[in-house]
Amino acid sequence: MKKFKLNHLSLMIITCLPLMAQAGVDSNNQVSANQTPDSQTPAKQASDNQVPDSRISYRQVLAKPTPASQTSVSRTSYRQVSGKQAPAKQISDINTPANFVYTEVIQPGTEPQRVKAPESDKQAQPEDLALELIQSESTDLKQTIHEQTDNSRIYLDEGAIWASRDITKVDPQLELSVSDAIEVDQGKISDSVSFNLVTNYSYYIKRWQLEVYRGKDIHLSEPLKVLTGDTLSNEFDVQWDGVTDIPYEMKKGQQLLYRLKLWDKDGNMDVTSIGVTDLIRGSQEVEMDKFDHQQATTTGTGSGDTDTDKGSRSYGVAKLLRHNIPTSAGMAKLMGTGLKGVDRVFIGEDEYTIEDNRLYVEQYLPTDAYMFPVKVKYDDGHERNYKLFVRIPDTYYAQTALADLYVGKNRVSGNKDVLGVNDQYKGDIYNRGRLAYFGEGKFGDKLRVVAHVDTKDQELKDMFKNPFASDTTTVFDILEDDDELYYGNYGDNANIQKVVNTKGKVYLDVQYDKSSVLWGNYNTGISGTENAQYNRSLYGFRGDYRTRSTTEFGDDRFNLVGFASQADSLYSHDEFRSTGLSLYFLRHGEVLPGSDKVVVRQVDDRNNRIVNEVILQEGRDYEFDAYQGRILLTRPLSAIAGDSFGSVISNTPSGDLKNYLAVDYEYIPRGTEALEKMAMGGRAKGWVNDHIGIGASYVEEEKENQDYQLSSADLTFKLTEGSFLKAEFSHSEGTQADSNFVSDDGGLTFEEISRVGKTRKGDAISISGVANLYDFMPETFGAVGNDLRVWYKDKDGGYSYASQNDDLAQTSLGTELRLQTGEESQLLASFQTIEETDQTGKKVTDTQDVKLEAQVMLTDHIKLGIAGQQIQELNQNDEESDASLLGARLEYVFDDSNNIYIKAQKTIDSSDGFDENDSASIGGEAKITEDLSLLGEYTTGDRGDSAQATINYDINDDHSTYLTLVKDDYEDSNNIIIGQRASLTSNLDGYLENKFVDENNGKGRIDSTGLDYDVNQDIRAGIGYQQGYIDYRDETDVKRTGYTAYIDFDQDNYQLGTKFEYRVDKGEEEIEQYVTTNHYTHHLTDEYTLYAKVNYSRTKNKTTKQQVAKFVESYVGLAYRPVYNDKLNFLSRYTYLEDFDSLDRDVSYTDEESHIVEAEGIYSVNARVDVGAKVAYKHKKEKFKRESGELFPVESKIYLTGLSASYSVMKDWDVTGEYHWKKDDSMDALEQGALVSVNKELSDNFKVGIGYNFSNFEDDLVHEDDYDAKGVFINLVGKI
C-alpha cells in the first residue's frame, strides 16, 4: 500500500504510532496481539500477510471460564535433556524436530511444560526445548496428540488457536467468591462450602492460605478455619467441609468473613480484601447501609489508612487489596477465532467455555519458555490434544518514531511588511518541524517503560516549550469514550488501543519493581491520613517509590509519593445527606472523566465524627454521567445508618447515625474560572520495624486569592491487625476545595459550606487508637467483642482540607469500651465530648456524653438492651443544659428474617433549660413471603415524631420493587420513595425511582428512570430521564431536568453510534443545553471505507433569551485503500465547523462558521513514478469585536489546488516536485508556489532532501501588497 507524503499526512501517521507498536509481528509466534488467522484458510496457506480482524484482540472478555473442578488435576515432572546442536531459527519454524521429545501421556489440566530459555534470550533452539518425561502422578489414561506442524498456533478444521506475548501492562486479577449459599443446621454447616478463585497470575503462586473468621471478629484475631495449599489456577475451587479448628456453633443470621493470602517463591505476599457472607442466606444481597459488614477502620492492617483500609470489605467476593508479588515479567495471550463446534478449551489446568466461536485468555508468566498442553472439546463430545508454545523474553522493546524537520531561507521582494508576522519570510533562516515517538518494553523482570512524545508542528525552539501545558478539554472529550473518534483519518479503518494517558506533549511511565515514575495523567493519591487528604486527578509528574520488603502485616517498609502539575481543572467536594435516594446531582456538570471518587460515610450527628467509610466503585456500586454530573447508585442509600449496639438512647427521633454520600471530582472550568496554577506535594511513610510507622505529607497549590499549603506528620504504632494507635499533626493555609457544597435534597439545592474570609490558616491534631483486649490478655478476654477505642481531635477554624472546610473550631475527645461479658451478653461504656465555636468565639456545639449500655440474649429468640446516659448540651436557645436518661430495648427474633422490637427512653433528671427527650419506638422486620419483606420503625416523643417504613417485593429473580416512607418532625421532612429495578428480559434492563419531597419550607419531587436494551450481540440502546424540583414558599424555585438516549451498532462491516443529552437547570436563571455525538464507519468493501462524525452542542439562557454557546463539529469522508492493486490511494472529506461562545474567553473572535471540502490522491504510474493531487475549498465566516465593542463580520472563500510528483532516479535517490495554487476571494488575492527537491536515503531510517521553493502573492485590490519569495530549504526525515 502506498504511503502518502509525510508532510501532507503526518498527523495521521503520528496518531497511528501506539497502534503501530502493537501491530508488529511477534518474532516467535508470528501472530501479534491484533492479528487473527483466517479460520477458513488451511494451515499450509497460512500467511502473515492476511488481513487481520483487528477488533477481536481488544475484546477483553471473549470466553467465560467454567469451574475447573470438573477436571482431574495431575502433576507431571520434566527435566531438560540435551539435544543435537542445530542452527538458530524461529520457533515457529521448528516443526516437531526429531530431537524434541514429546510425551503421549496428557491428562486434562496438565500444567504447561516450562522450557529453559537460553541465557542470551535469543531465538530458542531445538536443543533448548528438548524435554523428557521423568515422573508422572497421572492415571494411565493415554491420549494421542493430534497431528500438529507448528507449535506457535493450532489450526482446527474450522478456526485457529494461537499464542502471542504482550508487554502492555495489564492489572493483576485476583477474586475469591462464595459460589454456594451457606446453610446451617444444628450448629453446623449443612454442606461443604466452595470458594471459587479467578486469577491471571496463578503461575507465580507457590503457597496460599484461606482464612475464615466469625462475622463479629472484626479484628481478625482468631480464625475458625485455615486452609492451605501450594497450587492455584484460574477457576480453582477451594473446598471447605465446614469443620472448624476451634469449637464454634453456627447460627442462622450470623455471618462469616474470609480472606486469601498468597506467596510467591521469594516470600512476597498478596492479600485480598475481606469477603462477607451470610449463613443460611448466601445469596442475600448486602445493602449499602449495612456498615457492620464494613468495619473499614479496623480491618486489614488496623492502621486506619484510608487509602488501603477503607472499604476493604465486600459482600460475597474478596478482591485483591495488597499486591506485592511481582508480576511484571510478561503476559501471554492465548486467543482463538472461528472455533465453530467447539464447546470448551483446556489450557494447562484452566478450563474455558467458548462463546461466539472465540477464545481470549490473559495469563501472567515469569520470564521463560512454555509449552502449554491444550485440549479442544467439541459439542459432539470428541476431543483433540495439542501443544502451544509461548516464550516470555527477558528483554523486549517495541518502538516507532518520526522526525520531520525543515530548515530554509527565503529572499523576499515587494512589500515585505505584509509577511512581517511570519518568520519564514523575514529573510532570516527559518525552521519548522515535528517530532513524535512511541516506545514500550521490558528489561528483565522488574523494569518496564512506556514513552510517548508528540511536539506537533511548530518552530524547533517551541517544540518542548511549556512541558506542563495540557490540551484543553471540551464537552465532547467528556461525552466520547471511543478513542477512534479522535483519529482524524479521513475514514481510514484503524484500531486503537489506548496505552498512553496524557493531556500534553509528553508521556513517560517507568516502572521498576513496585516503584514508578510517571509523566501524564494520574490521581495524586495523598489519602493515607484523616486530616491531610489531597486526592485530585491531574496532569504532570508523579513518582511513587516502594520497597520490595514489607512488614509482617503487608505494609511497604518505605513508600514515597510526590507529584507536580499545572492544573487546568478545578477541584470540587460535594456532600449529600442521604434521603433514601439512588439519584444524586453534582454541583457542577462537565466533570473530568475518571476524576470522580465516591464514598459513603456514616456520621454521628452528635459530634460530626465519621464513624465509618465505604469506598464505592463505578460500575459495581454506581453509574456516573460525567457530562450531566449525575450519580446513580445501584441500590438506594438509606438515610439512617442502623446500629444494633449503642443505639438504645438517641438524641433525635430518627437516630444519631446518618449516611452521607461524599464526592470529590474535577470539573472543567469555563470563562474566567479557567486557571493554570501549579500544584505539588507528596507523602512519605516508613516503618522502623513491623510495629512503628512514621509518615509526613506536604501539598502546595497556587490559588487566585491565597495559595493553599498543607503539611502533616503522623505516627503509627501497630501491635497486631486489630490493635493500633495513630497520632497526626497538621497545618494548613488557604482553602483546598475551589467548590465545597452540601445538599439535603439529592443535589437540587446546595448550601456552600461556610468559609473563613480571604485569608485563613489553622492547625489540626488527631489521635485515635483501637486496642483488641485479646491481644494483651488472651487468658482473660475472648477474641471477639472485647476492645477499647480512643480518639482526640483539635481543629482550628481556619484549618482546611477536602471534607473539613467549615469555619468552626472543634475540640473533641472520647473513648469506648466493649466487653463480651458472656457467651450471650455484651457491655458498652463510652464517654465523648465535643465543643465547636464560630469565628466570633461563640459556642455552636458544647456536648458531653457518658453512656453505659448492656445487651443480653435471654433466650434463643429474646434480646434485651438496657442503657443509661448522662448528657450535657446546648438547647435550642444555645443555653447549657444537662440531663440523665434511661432506656431499654426489647427484641424478639423469630428467625434470621423476622424480628420485632420496642424501645423507650425516659429523662429521669434534667436542668431547667434541657429540651426533654422522652420517646417510645416500635419497629421490626418481616419476611412475609419469599419475595415480600417489610422493614419499619415508628417513634414518638418530646422532640417530635418519626416514622420510616420500607416494603421490598421481588416480583421474580430479575425484578425487584421497593416503597419507602420517611417522616421526621425533628428534621421537618416528609418523603416518599417508590422504585424498581428489573431485568425485563434477558436483553432488557430498566430502573425507575420517584421521590416526593416535603421538607423545610418547600415541596418537590425527584424522578429518575432508564432502560438498557441489548437487541443482540451487536446492537445496544438505552434511554434515561432525570428530573427534580423544589417549590419553595419564600425562595426561588429550583428545577433540574436531564434526558439521555443512545444507540450503538457494531456489525461486521459497519459501526454506528449516537448519543443525545439534554439538560435544563432552572433557578434564578434558566439554562438549557443540548449535546449530541454521532459517529459512523462503514467498510463498504475491503478497500472502501466511509466515515462520518457529527458533534453538536448548544447552550441557551432562556431567562435572558440569549444564546450562550453553540458548537458544531462534523465531517464525512471516503477512503479508498486497495489491498491487492496498490496503484491508487484516495482520501476525501467534507467538514463543517461552527463555534459561537459568549463566555468570557481570551479569543479575538466571537463567532466562526466554516465549510471545508478536500480530496487527495496518489497514483503509481510505474515502479519509479508517483503522482499526486489535492484540491480543497474553504468558506469561512467570522465576527470580530472592535475596541468599542461593536461586532463586524468577515467572510472569506479560499480555493486550493496542489500537484505533486516523485521520480525514483535510482535505488536511494528520488526527485520530488510540488505546485500549489491558492485563491482568496475576500481579499481578491492569489498565491501560488512551487518547490523541487532532491532526496537521498542515507539509510533505512534516515532521508535528507535539499530543494528550492518559489512563492508569489498578487493583491488585485492593493497592488502595494504584492510580493515574491524565493529560497532554498533542507528537509530531514528520520523514522524507526
Helix and strand topology:
Elements: H1 6-15, H2 17-22, E1 63-65, E2 76-80, E3 113-115, H3 126-129, E4 131-136, E5 153-155, E6 160-166, E7 174-178, E8 184-185, E9 188-189, E10 193-199, E11 207-214, E12 225-229, E13 236-240, E14 255-263, E15 269-272, E16 274-278, E17 313-315, E18 317-322, E19 331-337, E20 342-347, E21 350-354, E22 359-364, E23 368-378, E24 383-392, E25 395-414, E26 429-443, E27 447-454, H4 475-479, E28 506-512, E29 515-523, E30 537-546, E31 558-567, E32 570-577, E33 583-585, E34 597-604, E35 609-615, E36 622-625, E37 630-633, E38 657-667, E39 677-687, E40 692-701, E41 708-718, E42 724-733, E43 739-743, E44 751-752, E45 761-772, H5 773-776, E46 787-795, E47 809-822, E48 825-837, E49 843-857, E50 862-874, E51 880-895, E52 898-910, E53 919-927, E54 932-941, E55 946-956, E56 959-968, E57 973-983, E58 988-999, E59 1002-1016, E60 1019-1032, E61 1038-1050, E62 1054-1066, E63 1070-1083, E64 1088-1101, E65 1106-1120, E66 1128-1141, E67 1149-1164, E68 1169-1185, E69 1191-1210, E70 1213-1224, E71 1229-1243, E72 1246-1259, E73 1267-1279
Parallel strand pairs: 16-17, 32-43
Antiparallel strand pairs: 1-21, 2-4, 3-23, 5-6, 6-19, 7-10, 7-18, 8-9, 10-13, 11-12, 11-14, 14-15, 14-16, 15-18, 19-22, 20-21, 20-23, 23-24, 25-26, 25-73, 26-27, 27-28, 28-29, 29-30, 30-31, 31-39, 32-38, 33-37, 34-35, 34-38, 36-37, 39-40, 40-41, 41-42, 42-45, 43-44, 45-46, 46-47, 47-48, 48-49, ...
